[in-house]
Amino acid sequence: MSAGVKSLSPTLDVIGGFGRSVPDAALLGAVLTGDTRLMDATAQDIDNPPRIGLFATPNWGDVDADIQTAWMYAEQTLSKAGASCTIVPSPTGFESLVQLQKEICSYEMAHSLSHERLRHRAQISAALNGLFDEGMKVDGISHAQNLMLTQEWRQKIQQMFVDHDVILTPSTLGEAPFRARRYRRPPVLQKLDAAGLALCAHPVCQRTSRLARRLTVGGCSWRRPPPAGCCTLGAPTVNAIRKKTMKIRRVVTGHDSKGKAVVVHDEMCSNIISRRPQHHSCVVWSTGQFPVDNQDPANGNTRDVSVLQKQDTVFRIVQYDPGVAPRNHRTETIDYAIVMSGSIDMDLDGTTVHLNQGDVIVQRGTIHNWINHGNVPCVIAFILIAANPIDLDHQTLQAHG
Q1: Given the DSSP bridges, would you call strands 84-87 and 261-268 parallel, antiparallel or unpaired?
Q2: Which among 223, 259, 284, 383 would be 20 to 30 A from 136, CA to CA?
């Protein structure tokens, strides 16, 4: 019995499928996304020829003869069929995406598989342990910067589709060695992974060894807006986040002008946000000072608490979905936390603690990461109170990540 899919790199992971034909692959995509246009030829713009971009990439000089033959064959066949084929220039800095993809993947892999890394390292291959070690060299700040770069590149890639419906690119540089011990993601596809393209590899021709030569088709968006409920690329809207995450009723009390106890707010929280994949949070209240002024008329869930100020307190609800993107971080606070539902692992500098519904945590300025290995979301309520940074003899442990 399957318990679900364990995420390796939430930022880069995709679901892939194999099909005997394009219609088979389209059927799978339609089932997974609910977008029936994938099976409907009339959904395409048949009044105009398809606009196909030919993106050789900066690695073209290393591509073997068979791939080049497949490329020329595809271009000639598409042109004869009436498609408009034009060369797509490589964006400046495109080469940097290989390193970006490696750093994001290794960092998230090391944290997503922290249970295996910390408890079963001796049973893991040297190659995988090496990737774990590389990932642990990337700190939380660098990872956050890498995620920002990823978003910038995805916007740049969107511009490549202004004049093209799809982009054709080599799947790899050539045939993998027959006795290769492990698969290495081709640098071409590493860059496209980081850029967030939806990819489809299609066999074009065979060489004498009868191994298929494949080219990859990259897609980015539909010409027309997708119908309501369809799966689309890009960040989810606030409304979409609200629909699939927490429903939190917030009741806030106060006093009227005569000192009588009254209800000031009784509402469903609408300020649910997502700052990284599979993570959703909602600030219920913050005070801006401590001791607290209970006569402050300000609505406590409207303050900017992205960086906790001295003497501040914050009440926050967080939902960690399975495969939540890792964030190793420390805050200059003492945190009181209650696991409201689900279960989760708390990673502390190599020590992992498993927590279940009803468990409570007192987090005293320690660096930590939350990992959901289960198949249901975990919801935790946090009360954060500003604290002095940890000051040891040899260093001060300041906020991080």
Answers
A1: unpaired
A2: 383
Q: Which residues are CB-contacts of 213 (< 8 A; sequence separation ≥ 6)?
A: 66, 67, 69, 70, 203, 204, 205, 206, 207
Helices (H), 125-226: 126-136, 140-160, 187-195
What pLDDT digit, counting tens, does each position of 186-211 carry?
555 555 555 555 555 555 544 444 44
Q: What is the token pair recorded at 216?
A: 């990859």
pLDDT digits (tens, 9 = 90+) for 20-48: 777 787 788 778 777 776 676 545 555 67
**C-alpha distance from residue 389 to each of 309, 332, 399 (Å):** 13, 5, 8
Q: How far apart are CA 212 and CA 201, in angstroms?
A: 11
Cβ atoms of 381 and 341 within 8 Å: the answer is: no
Report pTM.
0.49
The identity of residue 291, as a single letter, is P
337, 325, 324, 323: which is closest to 385 by C-alpha? 337
Residue for token pair 């005569």: 258
Residues 57, 246: Cα–Cα separation, whole Å: 43
pLDDT band at 316 (very low <50, low <70, confident <90, very high): very high
Query: Tokens 């629909």 label which residue?
Result: 243
pLDDT greater than 90 at residue 359: yes
- DSSP notation for 242-302: HHHS---EEEEEEE-TTS-EEEEEEEE----EEEETTEEEEEEEE-SSSS--TT--S-TTS
Give 121's contacts (C-beta < 8 A, 6+ positions apart). Answer: 129, 132
Amino acid sitting at position 272: I
Q: Are 312 and 289 in contact (CB under 8 A)?
A: yes
What separation in angstroms does the CA of 11 have from each of 17, 226, 311, 367? 19, 23, 35, 22
Q: Which residue type, as a one-letter code, is found at position 124?
A: I
Q: Tell me whether strands 378-386 and 249-255 are parallel, antiparallel or unpaired.
A: unpaired
Q: How far is CA 174 from the centre of its chain?
A: 29
Token digits of residue 249: 């009723």
